């Protein structure tokens, strides 16, 4: 995609942020020696208005389109749901559809622990940390009033300050006094909302602690905003006792081993991050919260559990922090996010979190079932083969033809794809 790069390759470009996306793109093209095809590709922003893209982040030159697929077969709390998922990874959407098909009769049951976010205020150089902790706790009413005054809209919607915690943290530079402002952020993810409160309260907290305040920001370990889902897959519907026991064993492996748990939870996040992204929510916030929660015991472990219930069926559950919103960030302004929320038909952030938890469990069930039986590659290969075929240059109908031959020959490789493509083209 590139030709010779421009001669004057300086990354110091004065006023870059003040230019239009197209002007920036031309500068980048000159810097990198992009050819016309690459420039035309980047200049096409698809279904995102360049003016909006330019407002969402800094220094915009283009957009990155990721497919949005829809997971079918999901019944959540007795309601049928179609779930939009934005992902570049093959098999992710199919995995959710398959899991939902195998327990459609009973579906998924979900709940949440609340909508509470935590903002942290870090006080250091405190001479009497134990007493400082109490001095801050004694100001609870004052703190509540100051937090609520920051966000009258949130308060009018039933949200606002809920609780106060002060923790003492031993560190190499002494005991830190860490204040937690616990805030109900209703249908917002809440990062901006609680960060504003933490910044507002910081000078007063520094005064009460008689120390110096540095950091004032939310915690992504939003463990007062847990979403949960559980489901039963009947042994008869999933291929018998051996499959059931293989899934339980796969879970126990992840529960006991961080090396396995990382991959196990990555699979869960395949489903979760795809819905988080499709709805314009913050994938990194959710991922950070999930992995921190998985390590809460001091040892990183599985976010899901699998057991055999009294009927001999497979009983599965998931619990993780899910700070997602319907308002704030890109959720309300990105048209694809708005359309995704309309497909889901959700009217509260809580319902969105519950659906996302069910998707995470569904994803995990399918991955474990595949791993415990035929292995993951069989399902992956058909789609992977298409990618390989395209990389080898196949276009249009050639893609399916080449992919099918690669799978038949059990040799999904670029070099083989190139030869097969020649054969296909040769007739
Ligand atoms: P926001 O501030 O844009 O919107 C929330 C505000 O909307 C509330 O404070 C309230 O005043 C108002 N509001 C209107 N209707 C509401 C309703 N029904 N429920 C709740 N509030 C309502 O957004 P936010 O959710 O506070 O922040 C989310 C953004 O912050 C995301 O884009 C995220 O990426 C970003 N962010 C994340 C981090 C992090 O996760 N570490 C840090 C900084 C920023």
Looking at the structure, what is the overall shape? globular
Strand order of the largest sheet: 3-8-10-9
Any ligands, ions or cofactors bound here, and which?
A: nicotinamide-adenine-dinucleotide
Q: What amount of the residues lies in strands? A: 15-25%
Helix content: 40-55%
**Computed CA radius of gyration, to the nearest angstrom:** 25 Å
Distance between the termini: 29 Å
Describe this structure in words.
The chain is α+β, with helices and mostly antiparallel strands and about 425 residues long. Helix content is about 50%, strand content about 20%. It has 16 helices and ten strands. Strands 3-8-10-9 form a four-stranded antiparallel beta sheet. A hairpin with a 2-residue loop joins strand 5 (about 160-170) and strand 6 (about 175-185). Helix 4 (about 90-100) packs across helix 13 and helix 9 (about 240-255) crosses helix 13. The longest helix is centred in the last third of the chain and has 24 residues, at about 350-370. The protein is globular. The mean pLDDT is about 95. The structure holds nicotinamide-adenine-dinucleotide.
């Amino acid at each position: 995609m590139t030709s010779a790069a421009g001669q004057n390759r300086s990354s110091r470009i004065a006023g870059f942020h003040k230019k239009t996306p197209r002007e920036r793109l031309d500068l980048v093209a000159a810097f990198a020696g992009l050819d016309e095809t690459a420039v035309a590709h980047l200049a096409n922003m698809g279904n995102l208005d360049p003016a909006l893209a330019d407002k969402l982040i800094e220094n915009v030159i283009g957009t990155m389109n990721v497919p949005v697929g829809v997971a079918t077969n999901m019944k959540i709390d007795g309601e049928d749901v179609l779930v939009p998922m934005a992902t570049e990874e093959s098999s992710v959407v199919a995995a959710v559809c398959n899991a939902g098909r195998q327990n459609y009769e009973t579906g998924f049951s979900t709940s949440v622990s609340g909508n509470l976010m935590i903002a942290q205020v870090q006080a250091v150089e405190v001479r009497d940390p134990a007493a400082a902790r109490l001095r801050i706790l004694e100001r609870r009413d004052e703190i509540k009033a100051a937090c609520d005054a920051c966000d009258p809209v949130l308060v009018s919607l039933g949200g606002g300050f809920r609780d106060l915690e002060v923790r003492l943290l031993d560190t190499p530079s002494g005991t830190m006094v860490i204040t937690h402002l616990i805030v109900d952020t209703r249908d917002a993810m809440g990062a901006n909302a609680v960060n504003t409160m933490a910044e507002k309260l910081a000078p007063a907290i520094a005064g009460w602690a008689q120390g110096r305040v540095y950091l004032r920001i939310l915690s992504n370990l939003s463990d007062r905003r847990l979403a949960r889902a559980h489901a039963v897959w009947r042994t008869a519907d999933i291929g018998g006792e051996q499959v059931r026991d293989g899934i339980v064993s796969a879970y126990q492996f992840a529960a006991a081993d961080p090396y396995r748990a990382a991959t196990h939870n990555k699979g869960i996040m395949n489903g979760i991050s795809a819905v988080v992204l499709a709805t314009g929510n913050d994938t990194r916030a959710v991922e950070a919260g999930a992995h921190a929660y998985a390590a809460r015991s001091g040892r990183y472990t599985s976010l899901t559990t699998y057991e055999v219930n009294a009927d001999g069926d497979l009983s599965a559950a998931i619990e993780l922090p899910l700070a997602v919103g319907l308002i704030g960030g890109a959720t309300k302004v990105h048209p694809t996010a708005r359309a995704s929320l309309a497909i889901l038909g959700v009217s509260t952030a809580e319902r969105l979190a519950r659906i996302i938890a069910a998707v995470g469990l569904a994803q995990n069930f399918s991955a474990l079932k595949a791993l415990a039986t035929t292995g993951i590659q069989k399902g992956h290969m058909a789609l992977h083969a298409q990618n390989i075929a395209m990389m080898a240059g196949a276009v249009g109908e050639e893609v399916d033809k080449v992919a099918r031959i690669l799978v038949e020959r059990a040799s999904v490789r670029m070099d083989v794809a190139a030869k097969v493509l020649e054969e296909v083209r040769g007739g």
